[in-house]
């Protein structure tokens, strides 16, 4: 039978194959395919067909052409390959695979290979909708299908199908689904059905797979395709065992095995729901090592299976690498690929071949579908696979060796072959629930319609004639230069990562100090010297015997008079009223604290009971330290203990404490003065240190370029900043807003005190309960109205653009929001006087009240389950009042009764005098401290500074004011003086802007200059910088500049942070970004002065682009989706929050003279709240705003989404250019893809081509990222461009090394007509790299703009995200960089001696260990000497003051 009708069938198949020839004999690796196998019509000098080679050659180029008006492709292998790949149409492929069992082992990509191959044999053979499966690489355990070929007609039909889904396939949860233990239990049972076929009935339907008939006995009329799930290398062995145990004669089949493993090792490193969670705990190096070990462990079984004595002895095996997609930029991708390549290049042989799919797909002018190959790419990959599968190493009866089709030019036929076609037709498909029938992924939609290959035998010489005279009138695009093949030595692209990067000294005085003082010895010097000074100052106070220094030294008969004098001062105004604020980026953010003066309220005679003095000193110290730690925690400047983040909750406690002490003092010794006099007198105890802190904060802010405007300074001088929400979060010593609250409370204190004093016990308790319930309205009101309780998360710190922001700022900082807490403190003081002192139960309650309060607060701070909802606002206003009230009452005790805890704590009352100074100076000291991250030594330093501030600033100021007898005009002169001093300092102290040390003007070569662009934003005082400028020349003298204003801040927040219903600690990296623009006239004379003399023209102030709005024009472009990453190990949620558009590119508006378009990248605007953004949609996308006028940046313009790429992957760095009145974008460089964009945000199909040297570079250095930069400009100047004497487009691209984020830049030229292929690449451009502010970052430059005016080229760029610069050169000079003989730009890159500045080098650990101890001893000795000297100076000053 095998020689009867089946032989006739084979003859029919051969007849249907054009000029297919029969060849006998074995095929060796060295000879490839026999010359007799070449199709008729093939040129005699053509290389032979590639056959069974250990390592399949894959380096080459795909050149697009047109045949009869239809797109066609020719693939040419690069030297030294001595062969070419044949094309396998359906009939030739069936001829090849007769009697073969194709085994694919892998995950989702092998699913795609299996479905594509099956559907090319029988269209629609596998369909995700009909067969109830999903191509996800997780739940499809087995796809098994058998075809039978009709002996007469040659048609194929399906005789068996079995698709097994995991029982967990109805749930989207992947966590742990392929753990080692579960795979060992689940996979063998599923794979057994490949051995013997489906043995029993089972359920089928959506998410459960399907089946058709039973497995037939093996016949040479069969073709079988089996896809075994294998995410990890240990899954390969069970699959091979199932094949070796095959029944029903399938052991006799010719087996060809294709394996590709790797993507799920990468996925476990990158995604949240790990199918093998233990891999998610590995570092990058650890995971790569694990992958290598797993592969090596699996190789012995694979080698045996693919040996001459193994099941695959006839057809052999293919070990394929992962494929490459343009978006695969992370190191994990190319390192996993490199392991497979390295191991297989050692182990490969003709029966266990290696196919480098990574390199193959790099050279394809094609994009991926969500990290997977498109049908176009998949079919071509099968051509390479089949070239090694089809030749047999031994004869099978009289069956001939199959031959490919004769044609060498491929056409891919089908509506969804290309990725751009899939994006057009399949993007509308929703991601359905897993139990619903339909397309769940884009690649499923792509495979639902047949895409197949057709080979044409038209000679290349005849292509032009066929294209020009075909009915479709398609035109063959002739390259402006000969095709560039990938060959060693043929115009390669040379790169040199920061060969001569320009490092810089630190950008601000503060960072300069930290960089130079950041050693252990420097910190020790600071601590010892300051501690010595503090000790000396305190020693002077202790030993001072003058009346003004120590009233306690008076004789007993004079003490009552002194006490009466002190009582009139009512020093309870020094109440510590600490507050915290939203973590911010301001240079200084301090919340002052007022020392408790209860010691001054109660006479200090020795016969007084201890209970007459409140024991609040230690409590204040603990609370103030917690608030300081909370601020440092928010800036990641202290150890990441989440309880530190709750420091802000002590703010209401201090307001409560203030009301408590003031009311207690008023009840004992009422004062008779007006509210105005009362406020002025109390301000004496807070204003001197506050004013001193403002002056220091302003000086430091000026050094960082973050000083606020004059209006804000005036508001702060009069303590009014908390009443104006637009400035509250932009002030110096921002936490001092609480002093504004105290002023209000002092104004109404006497009136409220009389009411509280007359209240009885029931009224007091009712008021206390009502006040404690009041903050819960922030929880219950949103709950009842169906509003998100965390609505205030929509507010970004410093933003006041809409009513929600104003409301949040009001609730956080306005004095009216905290009045109830101050009143609560007064009520608690009244309750204390109403309680029965002699009651034993009351005394026991007072004994345990403070400890219980602290325990309750500790549980809330440390255990997420105990934390209140909406805590960021509710705890601030404050739902923790009951616990905080317990602490207050427990430490205050009762009149005549002092609890034991209070007695013990009273020994630390000396600390109360310094709490205010600690808080005023906390951020001032932090900016002086040598390191960003602090420890215990910083708090010692801070306490020492507080002692100095109290005794050298606060107390002398109080004494001086008392000399005037608290004259109200003198008191009013304090804020009036500050109203003059602060603006004067703001004017005279220079503002230092972050910038590099590159000179403003550098002449690199003749006709080439590097210039600093003096761009400043109108009204900018927040320390932001202008980067990534884009320039446009209109006419010969008008220069348009659009740039990005950028600032970064960091905050860490453990409160109100949730991840999938679990509490977490949020770490936010905030990028404050907005687009700014300006226009100016720059004449030839201006250019001449700038380039020859280095005198820059006057640039106008740039204006923020406030008119940009969302697509429907409903709101500004502000609240955007953010990116999240959860780290389970420490329950940390990392968030990147960008609050505005980024990286604009300006181009002339097509058909609109005087106007221009702006293309920019941005995270998508949130439709409602940021929480509604789907994680897969929180990625950068490209947008376009049309008809913008630079002189009217407030005019409303919609930003439209360019729906031309992937909505679930980052899109940026597109290159815009204008052609014939239409806007085009270069979407990618490798492959070079160009698309036409419409105003409605849609784009036409991408025109793609490849450029050999860049593909070679990408293959050689797979970790590099090649992306576009700036705009493209049309050039038609044959005299200035002798290396390209014809019209072309000039553009830029950059290559990034992800290891250290360094860049190199190139200019390139591309064809002005479709397909816009690249024709030339320049030598590396000499942009000036500089080191950014982030410690440890590599120096870099980033090109962002390109303009040509006359014969002058302007390449604008940002140096290290610090300053805008421009490389200005002539068009002829730039053309010289395209000369193949142009030397590598090493001389140009190397900075001149005057342009070089090295960052200070830290000494090694060995030197520190050797010399650290003696140096420390010297520094301690120095501190001991300096302290007494300063003490003598202070004492001399004190004596002169007395005289």
Characterization of this structure:
Helices cover 36% and strands 18% of the residues. It has 1443 residues and is of the alpha+beta class. A hairpin with a 3-residue loop joins strand 30 and strand 31 (1232-1237). The protein has an eight-stranded mixed beta sheet with strand order 6-5-4-7-3-8-9-10, sandwiched between helices. Strands 15, 16, 19, 20, 22 and 23 form a six-stranded mixed beta sheet that branches. Strands 13-14-39-38-37 form a five-stranded antiparallel beta sheet. Helix 7 packs parallel to helix 8 and helix 21 runs parallel beside helix 34 (915-928). It is built from 41 helices and 39 strands.
Write the layout of secondary structure elements.
Blueprint: H1 5-16, E1 60-67, E2 70-77, H2 90-97, E3 100-106, H3 108-121, E4 140-149, E5 156-165, H4 180-196, E6 211-212, E7 222-229, H5 236-244, E8 254-259, H6 263-270, H7 284-305, E9 317-320, H8 331-347, E10 352-355, H9 357-362, H10 375-389, E11 409-413, H11 419-426, H12 442-447, E12 452-456, H13 460-469, H14 509-517, H15 520-543, H16 559-569, H17 598-601, H18 617-634, H19 650-668, H20 675-683, H21 687-703, H22 710-717, H23 725-728, H24 737-747, H25 749-757, H26 761-773, H27 777-785, H28 803-813, H29 819-834, H30 840-862, H31 871-877, H32 881-892, H33 900-905, H34 915-928, H35 936-963, H36 968-988, E13 1001-1005, E14 1008-1012, E15 1025-1034, E16 1038-1053, E17 1058-1059, E18 1062-1063, E19 1065-1081, H37 1084-1093, E20 1103-1104, E21 1108-1109, E22 1123-1127, E23 1132-1138, E24 1142-1148, E25 1156-1162, E26 1181-1188, E27 1197-1198, E28 1200-1201, E29 1215-1219, E30 1222-1228, E31 1232-1237, E32 1247-1249, H38 1252-1260, E33 1265-1275, E34 1288-1297, E35 1302-1310, E36 1318-1324, E37 1341-1349, E38 1352-1359, E39 1363-1370, H39 1371-1376, H40 1386-1389, H41 1405-1442
Parallel strand pairs: 3-7, 3-8, 8-9, 9-10, 19-23, 21-27
Antiparallel strand pairs: 1-2, 4-5, 4-7, 5-6, 11-12, 13-14, 14-39, 15-16, 16-19, 17-18, 19-20, 22-23, 24-25, 25-26, 26-28, 29-30, 30-31, 31-32, 33-34, 34-35, 35-36, 37-38, 38-39
């Amino acid at each position: 039978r095998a020689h009867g009708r089946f032989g006739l069938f084979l003859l029919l198949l051969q007849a249907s194959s054009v000029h297919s020839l029969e060849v006998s004999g074995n095929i060796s690796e060295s000879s490839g395919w026999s010359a007799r196998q070449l199709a008729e019509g093939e040129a005699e000098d053509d290389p032979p067909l590639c056959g069974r080679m250990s390592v399949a050659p894959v380096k080459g180029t795909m050149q697009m052409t047109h045949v009869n008006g239809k797109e066609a492709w020719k693939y040419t292998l690069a030297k030294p390959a001595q062969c070419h790949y044949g094309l396998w149409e359906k009939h030739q492929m069936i001829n090849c695979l007769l009697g073969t069992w194709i085994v694919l082992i892998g995950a989702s990509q092998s699913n795609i290979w299996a479905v594509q191959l099956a559907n090319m044999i029988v269209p629609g053979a596998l369909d995700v909708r009909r067969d109830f499966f999903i191509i996800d690489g997780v739940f499809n355990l087995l796809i098994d299908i058998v075809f039978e070929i009709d002996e007469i007609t040659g048609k194929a039909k399906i005789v068996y199908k079995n698709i097994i889904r995991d029982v967990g396939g109805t749930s989207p949860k992947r966590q742990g689904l392929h753990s080692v233990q579960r795979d060992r239990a689940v996979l063998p049972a599923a794979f057994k059905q490949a051995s013997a076929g489906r043995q029993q009935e089972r359920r089928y339907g959506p998410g459960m797979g399907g089946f058709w008939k039973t497995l037939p006995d093996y016949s040479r009329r069969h073709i079988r395709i089996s896809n075994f799930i294998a995410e990890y290398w240990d899954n390969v062995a069970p699959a091979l065992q199932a094949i070796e145990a095959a029944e029903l004669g399938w052991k006799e089949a010719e087996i060809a095995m294709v394996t590709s493993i790797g993507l799920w090792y990468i996925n476990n490193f990158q995604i949240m729901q790990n199918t093998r969670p233990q891999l998610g705990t590995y570092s990058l190096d650890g995971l790569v090592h694990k992958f290598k070990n797993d592969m090596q462990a699996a190789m012995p079984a694979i080698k045996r299976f693919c040996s001459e004595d193994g099941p695959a002895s006839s057809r052999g095996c293919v070990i394929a690498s992962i494929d490459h997609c343009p978006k695969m930029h992370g190191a994990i991708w190319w390192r996993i690929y490199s392991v497979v390549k390295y191991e297989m290049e050692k182990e490969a042989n003709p029966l266990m071949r290696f196919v480098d799919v990574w390199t193959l797909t790099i050279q394809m002018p094609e994009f991926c579908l969500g990290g997977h190959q498109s049908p176009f790419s998949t079919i071509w990959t099968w051509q390479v696979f089949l070239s090694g599968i089809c030749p047999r190493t031994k004869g099978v009866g009289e069956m001939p060796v199959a031959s490919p089709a004769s044609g060498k030019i491929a056409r891919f036929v089908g509506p969804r072959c290309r990725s751009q076609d899939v994006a057009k037709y399949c993007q509308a498909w929703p991601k359905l629930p897993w139990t619903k029938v339909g397309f769940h992924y884009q690649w499923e939609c792509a495979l639902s319609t047949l895409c197949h290959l057709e080979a044409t035998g038209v000679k290349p010489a005849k292509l032009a004639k066929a294209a020009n005279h075909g009915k479709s009138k398609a035109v063959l695009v002739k390259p402006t230069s000969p095709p560039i093949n990938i060959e060693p030595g043929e115009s390669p692209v040379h790169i040199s990562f920061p060969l001569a990067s320009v490092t810089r000294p630190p950008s601000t005085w503060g960072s300069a100090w930290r960089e130079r003082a950041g050693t252990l010895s420097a910190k020790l010097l600071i601590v010892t010297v300051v501690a010595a000074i503090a000790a000396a100052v305190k020693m002077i106070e202790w030993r001072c015997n003058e009346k003004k220094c120590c009233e306690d030294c008076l004789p007993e008969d004079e003490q009552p008079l002194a006490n009466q004098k002190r009582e009139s001062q009512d020093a309870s105004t020094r109440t510590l009223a600490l507050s915290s604020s939203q973590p911010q980026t301001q240079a200084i953010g301090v919340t002052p604290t007022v020392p408790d003066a209860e010691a001054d309220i109660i006479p200090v005679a020795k016969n007084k009971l201890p209970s007459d003095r409140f024991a609040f000193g230690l409590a204040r110290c603990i609370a103030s330290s917690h608030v300081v730690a909370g601020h440092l925690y928010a800036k990641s400047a202290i150890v990441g203990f989440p309880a530190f983040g709750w420091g802000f909750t002590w703010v209401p406690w201090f307001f409560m404490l203030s009301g408590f002490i003031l009311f207690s003092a008023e009840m004992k010794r009422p004062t008779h003065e007006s509210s105005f006099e009362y406020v002025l007198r109390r301000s004496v105890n807070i204003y001197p240190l506050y004013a001193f802190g403002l002056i220091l904060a302003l000086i430091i802010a000026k050094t960082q370029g973050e000083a606020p405007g004059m209006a804000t300074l005036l508001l702060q001088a009069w303590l009014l900043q908390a009443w104006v929400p637009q400035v509250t979060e932009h002030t110096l010593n921002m936490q001092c807003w609480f002093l504004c609250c105290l002023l209000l409370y002092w104004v109404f204190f006497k009136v409220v005190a009389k009411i509280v004093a007359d209240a009885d016990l029931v009224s007091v308790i009712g008021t206390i309960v009502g006040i404690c319930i009041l903050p819960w309205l922030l929880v219950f009101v949103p709950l009842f109205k169906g509003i998100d309780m965390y609505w205030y998360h929509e507010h970004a710190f410093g933003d006041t653009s809409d009513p929600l922001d104003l409301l949040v700022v009001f609730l956080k900082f306005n004095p009216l929001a905290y009045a109830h807490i101050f009143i609560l403190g007064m009520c608690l003081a009244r309750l204390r006087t109403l309680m029965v002192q002699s009651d034993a139960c009351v005394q026991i309650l007072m004994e345990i009240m403070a400890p219980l309060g602290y325990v309750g607060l500790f549980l809330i701070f440390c255990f997420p389950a105990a934390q209140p909802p909406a805590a960021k606002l509710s705890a601030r206003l404050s739902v923790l009042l009951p616990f905080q009230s317990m602490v207050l009452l427990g430490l205050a005790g009762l009149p005549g009764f002092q609890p034991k805890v209070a007695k013990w704590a009273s020994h630390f009352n000396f600390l109360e005098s310094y709490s205010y100074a600690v808080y005023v100076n906390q951020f001032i000291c932090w900016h002086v401290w040598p390191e960003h991250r602090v420890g215990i030594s910083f708090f010692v330093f801070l306490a020492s500074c507080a002692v100095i501030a109290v005794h050298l600033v606060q107390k002398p100021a109080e004494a001086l004011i008392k000399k005037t007898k608290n004259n109200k005009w003198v008191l009013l002169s304090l804020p009036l003086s500050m109203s003059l001093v602060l603006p004067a300092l703001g004017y005279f102290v220079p503002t230092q802007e972050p910038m590099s040390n590159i000179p403003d003007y550098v002449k690199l070569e003749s006709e080439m200059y590097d210039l600093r662009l003096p761009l400043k934003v109108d009204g900018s005082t927040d320390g932001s910088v202008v980067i990534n400028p884009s320039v446009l020349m209109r006419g010969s003298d008008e220069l348009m500049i659009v740039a990005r204003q950028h600032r970064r801040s960091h905050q860490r927040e453990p409160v109100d942070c949730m991840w999938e219903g679990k509490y977490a600690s949020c770490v936010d990296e905030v990028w404050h970004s907005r687009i700014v623009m300006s226009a100016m006239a720059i004449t030839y004379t201006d250019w001449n002065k700038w380039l020859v003399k280095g005198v820059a023209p006057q640039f106008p102030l740039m204006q923020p682009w406030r008119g940009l709005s969302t697509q429907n024009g409903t709101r500004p472009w502000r609240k955007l989706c953010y990116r999240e990453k959860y780290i389970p190990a420490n329950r940390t949620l990392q968030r990147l929050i960008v609050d505005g558009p980024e990286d604009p590119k300006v181009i002339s508006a097509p058909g609109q003279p005087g106007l221009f378009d702006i293309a920019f990248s941005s995270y998508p605007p949130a439709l409602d709240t940021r929480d509604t953004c789907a994680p897969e949609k929180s990625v950068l996308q490209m947008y376009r705003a049309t008809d913008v006028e630079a002189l009217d940046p407030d005019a409303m313009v919609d930003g439209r989404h360019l729906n031309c790429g992937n909505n679930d992957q980052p899109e940026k760095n597109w290159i815009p250019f204008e052609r014939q009145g239409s806007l085009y974008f270069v979407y990618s460089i490798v492959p070079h893809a160009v698309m036409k964009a419409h105003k409605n945000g849609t784009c036409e199909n991408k025109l793609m081509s490849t450029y050999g040297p860049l593909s070679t570079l990408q293959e050689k250095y797979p970790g590099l990222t090649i992306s576009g930069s700036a705009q493209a400009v049309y050039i038609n100047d044959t005299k200035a461009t002798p290396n390209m004497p014809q019209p072309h487009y000039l553009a830029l691209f950059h290559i990034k090394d992800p290891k250290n984020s360094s860049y190199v830049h190139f200019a390139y030229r591309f064809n002005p007509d479709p397909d816009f292929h690249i024709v030339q690449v320049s030598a590396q451009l000499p942009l000036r790299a500089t080191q950014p502010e982030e410690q440890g970052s590599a120096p870099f430059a980033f090109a962002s703009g390109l303009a040509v005016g006359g014969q002058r080229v302007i390449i604008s760029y940002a140096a290290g995200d610090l300053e805008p610069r421009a490389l200005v050169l002539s068009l002829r000079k730039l053309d010289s960089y395209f000369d193949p003989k142009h030397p590598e730009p090493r001389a140009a890159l190397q900075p001149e001696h005057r342009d070089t500045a090295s960052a200070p080098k830290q000494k090694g650990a060995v030197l520190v260990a050797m010399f650290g101890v003696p140096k420390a001893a010297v520094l301690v000795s120095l501190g001991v000497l300096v302290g007494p000297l300063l003490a003598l100076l202070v004492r001399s000053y004190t004596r002169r003051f007395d005289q």
